[in-house]
Amino acid sequence: MGIEVEKKAGFDTESAKEVVKELRASFVAGKTKTYEWRRTQLTAMLKMMDENEPQIVAALTDDLSKPELESSIYEIAMLKNSCKLALKEMKHWMMPKKAKTSLTSFPSSAEIVSDPLGVVLIISAWNYPFLLSLDPVVGAIAAGNAIVLKPSEISPSTASLLAKLVKKYLDCSCIKVVEGAVPETTALLEQKWDKIMYTGNGRIARIVMAAAAKHLTPVVLELGGKSPVIVDSGINLQVATRRIIAGKWGCNNGQACISPDYIITTKDYALELVDSFKCELERFYGKNPLESKDLSRIVNSNHFARLLKLLDEDKVSSKIVYGGERDETNLKIAPTILLDVPQDSLIMNEEIFGPLLPIIMIDKVEDSFDLINYSGAKPLAAYLFTNNKKLKEKFVEKVSAGGLVVNDTTVHLAEPSLPFGGVGESGMGAYHGKFSFDTFSHKKAVLYRSFAGDAAVRYPPYTAGKLRLMRALLGGSIMGIIRALLGWSKP
Amino acid sequence: MASEGEKKAVFDAESVVKELRASFAAGTTKSYEWRSTQLNAMLKMMEENEPLIIAALRDDLSKPELESSIYEIAMVKSSCRMALKKMKQWMMPEKAKTSLITFPSSAEIVPEPLGVVLVISAWNYPFLLSLDPVVGAIAAGNAVVLKPSEISPATSSLLARLAADYLDHSCIKVIEGAVPETAALLEQKWDKILYTGNGRIARTVMAAAAKHLTPVVLELGGKCPVIVDSDINLQVATRRIIAGKWGCNNGQACVSPDYIITPKNYAQKLIDSLKCELERFYGKNPLESKDLSRIVNSSHFARLSKLLDEDKVSSKIIHGGERDKANLKIAPTILLDVPQDSLIMTEEIFGPLLPIILVDKVEDSFDVINSSGTRPLAAYLFTNDKKLKKKFIATVSAGGLVVNDTTVHLAEPTLPFGGVGDSGTGAYHGKFSFDTFSHKKAVLCRGFAGDAFVRYPPYSRGKIRLLKALFDGSFLGIIRALIGWSNSKS
User: Any idea which UniProt keywords this protein has (chain A) (predicted)?
Assistant: First the structure.
């Protein structure tokens, strides 16, 4: 333990430089570019998960008291699927894509070639510390890059397990885990990377992008926001309620970037909804949810204090209609529902990221779109429960968010055919599936010409005739070209 | 003039953005009709004002009419026409497959406008580089502010006038100005910024964007190398190099060939060919040729003179070198075997000077290019050797590559145009323009049927087994898990 601390204290700008230097040398030597290398790494990652699932689950229990099912499915199984998909499709993704060429460069052929960017930095988050660390790494490997992964220090067991496992299973001349906190992250951010992917909050994201700007490093920022759920009437209320609960408390106890943050429903429907919540919450977590094994705890005392501050604000504490119990020693807060909190309360002005669910009421359900857009910040996800086709269409048309789901919450994350990322305050760029491969690639345009068919019209001395002909050529019309050749087009 | 200066001094960037945001929020820019109207108006604008545009470009750059007409105006027209033709298709949501995990469900990816975007243009192709991005922004349904370069003032003020006359100025605005105005604009919150120019300013733009988490496209430059192999059609190759260099705004283009790399024993042949074709194109007194742009201003003239006059370099001039300071003209100049650590080999030339670097064998050129440490916007290779072509594509990283020509990839809208590393981030042209100004919103739709109870607490071993099988996508696994569930009841 003492030696570990020394090692960590030692990681400074010089160490960061050395790491990047080593990785660049590996990249330049071509190690990461071969299909075989990428395949070997991804296969090793699968093996790593197969052989260490209990340890991974234990680390997540340590860091978050995450229930085994959530660790096993929403972290490990998700990552396995990423690896498997990449292994299956990678050859296809790596192939150049033919591009049509026009009369302008005839005769010619063209293609778009996917090149690895080079040496990339992935900065992960604490709430899904395993998935959010390795899922981007899968994409970076598939695209042929060398990688530094910086896991979050707020989930230290997972961070140090990742360091250990990566070293054991993956090629450490090309893939490294750097543990640490602010000093180490700062040292890393001073270096020149070919891409940085950051998952976390908007404040740090600004710092990451500002650091990237110094080197013109492109970034992917996976952030968050207040993901709203609009609940219409005339729906299967039980299923809707269960799906909301699953997305909120069933996802790391609300500490997930796409967890339903708050609900908007009509005044007429609110009480029915609240009753349904009370019923299903008890069915899921029992009468004493503070003792349920199926809820993650609050990650640490900072966040615990933060959430209490949201709950205990004067204008808000009286609005609790369910829950509100807390256990500071064990960092637990019971599933809590609030009804009709003021728009200017703290709880409605920051991302909650915890087990508190405010319900906002409006007159008619269509008013919810303005409410969502009014906040000015676009969330990472937005949800709507309805059977009304027109309302669905309006929702998709009017609500801007990273992604939308109708009649469920959070599940779009699991579909690799959908780009996962934010817009505006919720982030930039996207990944998952082929989008991961693309985001860690440079799409290089390649045009091939031969020496035949040299268009003399390009060359000086420029004349009116050449001008006419070139216009016709760029216009792409064969007739235009013939006319110009015959001197019949406008001067 | 005094009132213009006052106007600029009181330029209120905040209210410009506020007005555009209101227009965007009102939905003005989102309809297909609006986008179509704007693009048609832009076409009309060019048709009715071509002589004025050419005159402004002549004013700013002494740009030859053919270059203005074709490489600026015709290119923008092409962009408009393509967007008009394809926009409906581009705007359509794209169906996405869903898996067993969310069955039953349907999904699509919906492109939506980002909102209010800022396009900062450059001085060398001031018409094209201003309006081409604007075409993409409009096609994608955004409100736009265009900030043209003050270094090409005639084009800048013509753009301001024409945009006000032809386009919807409640949604599309041209803001003229220099550093103060640009700084004021960069303080605002934009939904995207597309900047064309140099790396130094790009860093400033990206740092400003970082404050608001604004995504950026940076179209920069670099030293675009041309590798010339032996055993090629030397005349055609030479002409294409000249066309890409001096035929593109006299070398002041981001994709212009910057320098040549060729084997020692081919160099003389190449030089002779260049001299021959240069004379054929520009005559014996190229300083007087009407077919060459001038150097844009005295700053750049001084910069280029400095490159030429460096001690270790001035002796390497083997063709050209003549200058006319009064008229800001430098003749097409070729240098042979300049040192790698000279200024001319360290910065992007952006002018009519062409150094030739010699290597022993042509394969060595890849190391020369990669050892520079920065990746250029374009790289070119002239060869008939198939293996060399393959190695070039595999080894050289640049925004784009062309084999057996220079610069023409710019004109193919099916190819993404953008840099990598120091030459930039993001790309545009064709559908890539539409995409770069859009947010691709994932949409997943489910019904209330088929609710997988296995998701819900209380969690159990059986549920874990079943979910694992579900995620695995294996029906057999699911059946086994279901059977195991009913067997073990745990």
Answer: Oxidoreductase
